[in-house]
Amino acid sequence: MGSLTNKRVLLGVTGGIAAYKSADLVRRLQDAGAEVRVVMTPAAREFITPLTMQALSGNPVHTSLLDTDAEAAMGHIELARWADVVVVAPASADFIAKLAAGEGDNLLLAVCLATPAQVAIAPAMNQGMWGKQSTEDNLHTLQRRGMAVFGPSEGSQACGDVGLGRMLEPLDIVAALVPLFARGVLSGRKVVITAGPTREAIDPVRYISNHSSGKMGYALAEAAAEAGADTWLVSGPTGLPCPDRVNLVSVTTAQEMLDTTLGLMNGCDLFVGAAAVADYRPKKQWSQKIKKHSDAMTLELEKNPDIIAAVSALPSRPITIGFAAETEHLIENATKKRIAKRLDGVIANDVSRSDIGFNSDDNQVTLVLDSGIEEMPVLSKNQLARVLIDRLAQLL
Ligand code: PMT
User: Fold this and answer.
1) pTM for the model
2) Most buried by CB count within 10 Å: which residue of 46, 165, 299, 316?
3) At 378, is the secondary structure helix, strand, or coil?
4) Total number of domains in the chain
5) pLDDT digit string (tens) for 333-348?
């Protein structure tokens, strides 16, 4: 998993000969797992074409504040909100001066003004310009405002001079970005979550399933992604939208959920089984719709594979957390499940109540760990998911 997985990097390119390195920087950012959008100043287009940057980034390149089509597609405010970080590389002396003055008369300046995200600049200029007091004052102004300054490095320059002012190499810029994100409690981790019901076919028309909506599992996936994890959601049929920055794999049956889950275990740090997996499936699936003959019908069922037990049995298993859907003796039954399935923890919820559990927007759970019992209040599933992710991250 790359050091910038799930991160959205808006790369600003200004007018300087170092702009040729920005093309390589796009590739290095993508290699680190980031999604990249490029904004170029008018001067930058004298050094590298938008077509090159568009081909490399795979996203439309934004160049003009007054481009009605571009504004209609993704305007400067949306761009500013899209970004997790704005990196200006190269950052020319002129751009740095305009940024320090709070100007916004081109798209990149406007985005830097509007974005709530961290802004980082990689200066690139002639060593004489770098040494000027005005440049130093402008940089100090930007640093006082919390902007990060990457480099510059020392060496030979396009103009033949040798000295400070070369833009950092692309890999060094990527390396300088990573610490800006090392805040998420699950940064650098891989998390796999199962969610929703499974459907076990009886015939082409009928199936066995349950009332799981998937809300709990989807909320956990969203919270894990927000915490910086490389998040994989293995979901039965729910109809819910895939949360932002989550990798969704849709399945139907328990067998498919098992196969998909085991296929995702490589490098997995945390597995949470929130899915309501059908414990049984019809021993026989009819290829044609069963006709209604007699008043009664008998279905012979057979056990489905136990997904979470299979995960917890892996030789190099992740931290494995199950849910327990109980209607009575909540803690006793949850504890039995934790031990029987060799889990690191079980999140127990009473599914006999209509206000929590299946399909509700709220839930109340008790976390059953080896270290003890932790009861949580009724919370929305979204809020509860964040509390649970923070707590489970501590187990890592
Ligand atoms: O989806 P929602 O509508 O938001 O509802 C949330 C929920 C009630 C479904 C959820 O909070 C929950 O309790 N999920 C677990 C439901 C369930 O199947 O519980 P269980 O006690 O039957 O299973 C125990 C654990 O084993 C669970 O982690 C389950 O995912 C796992 N399991 C069960 C059977 C099986 N064949 N394979 C499994 O992995």
Assistant:
1) 0.70
2) 165
3) coil
4) 2
5) 999 999 999 999 999 9
